[in-house]
């Protein structure tokens, strides 16, 4: 299916359903959000605990929230969007059945509204707690298929625009975009997410960098500081696993490496230092090779490189 066909099916549906069974009930589930965002949906909701640096069993605790850029997050139960605005819900059968955060009200609202509700869940037979049948069997629902199908449509689209998906171990488009930007600026390719994160601390022009600047920012003063305990660092690894297809060991290792860089250097991920990096100038020079007027991918890359941090 072409990317335009995917977009048309989503736009024409009251409720569009995508299932993404890879990973498990807690992890990898947010990898699809950039693709949904690039298709035009600017609002999203999913369990708030997935935005926080805490373990799955700590879902009832509060805390600061972080995420990759690109969309507006809304807390389930407090969503007040105009009827014409589309919304993406990422959830799992576990959360639907075992927590208070059911999506029944959203399904009922969008089944008779102007906007579209895009649901990404972990099972093909996902069923809202108040439903009588799997969601994709409902007459108001358009089943798009597996997330793999959406991702492959993007692969074809990127290739038609002269870009690739250089990372062989992720289907998160935002992370793939960062790999493309790194190669554009540095002239060297990275092929895995681990390789990309190995270079991240020296690449402040990447949009990924800003996310980690926020995570390591001091609470009440300028600068950055390492995370306060091994428990929080491990929870940080879990935060990464919700977005990138890593196992527990890899995510833990990278979380500890990033934290160690902040602890040892003192300026890693500090935006006040990063803005003075020579790499920022190199990134802006690289942006001159893009054609934002004719390519939506180039336009996105150009904006990121010209306005880092």
CATH topology of the largest domain: Rossmann fold
* Head-to-tail CA distance between termini: 36 Å
Pairing-aware structural class of the strands and helices? Answer: alpha/beta
Main β-sheet, spatial strand arrangement = 3-2-4-5-1-6
The Cα radius of gyration reads 20 Å
Helices and strands, in N-to-C order?
HEHEEEHHEEHHHHHHHHH
What does this structure look like?
The protein has 13 helices and 6 strands. The model has no long low-confidence stretch (mean pLDDT 94). The protein has 2 domains: 3-151, Rossmann fold (3-Layer(aba) Sandwich); 165-306, no CATH class. The longest helix has 18 residues, at 248-265. A 6-stranded parallel sheet has the order 3-2-4-5-1-6, sandwiched between helices. With 309 residues, it is of the alpha/beta class. The protein has helices at 3-12, 33-38, 93-98, 104-110, 147-160, 173-186, 193-200, 207-216, 230-241, 248-265, 271-274, 278-287, 296-306, and strands at residues 15-19, 43-45, 72-73, 87-90, 117-121, 141-146.
SSE layout and pairing:
Blueprint: H1 3-12, E1 15-19, H2 33-38, E2 43-45, E3 72-73, E4 87-90, H3 93-98, H4 104-110, E5 117-121, E6 141-146, H5 147-160, H6 173-186, H7 193-200, H8 207-216, H9 230-241, H10 248-265, H11 271-274, H12 278-287, H13 296-306
Parallel strand pairs: 1-5, 1-6, 2-3, 2-4, 4-5
């Amino acid at each position: 299916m072409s990317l335009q066909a995917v977009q048309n099916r989503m736009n024409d549906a009251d409720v569009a359903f995508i299932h993404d069974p890879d990973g498990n009930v807690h992890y990898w589930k947010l990898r699809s959000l950039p693709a949904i965002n690039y298709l035009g949906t600017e609002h999203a909701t999913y369990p708030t605990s997935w935005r926080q640096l805490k373990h799955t069993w700590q879902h009832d605790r509060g805390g600061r929230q972080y995420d990759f850029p690109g969309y507006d997050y809304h807390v389930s139960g407090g969503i007040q969007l105009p009827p014409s605005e589309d919304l993406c819900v990422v959830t799992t059968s576990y959360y639907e059945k075992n927590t208070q955060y059911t999506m029944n009200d959203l399904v009922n609202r969008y089944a008779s509204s102007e906007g579209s509700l895009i649901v990404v869940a972990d099972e093909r037979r996902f069923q809202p707690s108040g439903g009588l049948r799997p969601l994709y069997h409902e007459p108001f629902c358009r089943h798009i298929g597996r997330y793999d199908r959406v991702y492959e449509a993007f692969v074809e689209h990127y290739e038609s625009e002269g870009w690739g998906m250089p990372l062989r171990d992720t289907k998160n488009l935002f992370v793939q975009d960062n790999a493309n930007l790194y190669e554009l600026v540095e002239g060297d390719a990275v092929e895995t997410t681990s390789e990309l994160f190995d270079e991240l601390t020296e690449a402040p022009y990447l949009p990924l960098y800003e996310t980690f600047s926020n995570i390591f920012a001091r609470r009440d003063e300028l600068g950055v500081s390492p995370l306060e305990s091994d428990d929080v660092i491990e929870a940080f690894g879990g935060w990464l696993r919700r977005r990138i297809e890593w196992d527990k060991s890899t995510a833990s290792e990278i979380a500890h490496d990033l934290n160690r860089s902040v602890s040892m250097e003192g300026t890693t991920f500090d935006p006040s230092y990063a803005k003075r990096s020579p790499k920022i100038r190199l990134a802006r020079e690289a942006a001159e090779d893009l054609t934002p007027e004719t390519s939506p991918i180039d336009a996105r890359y150009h904006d990121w490189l010209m306005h880092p941090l």
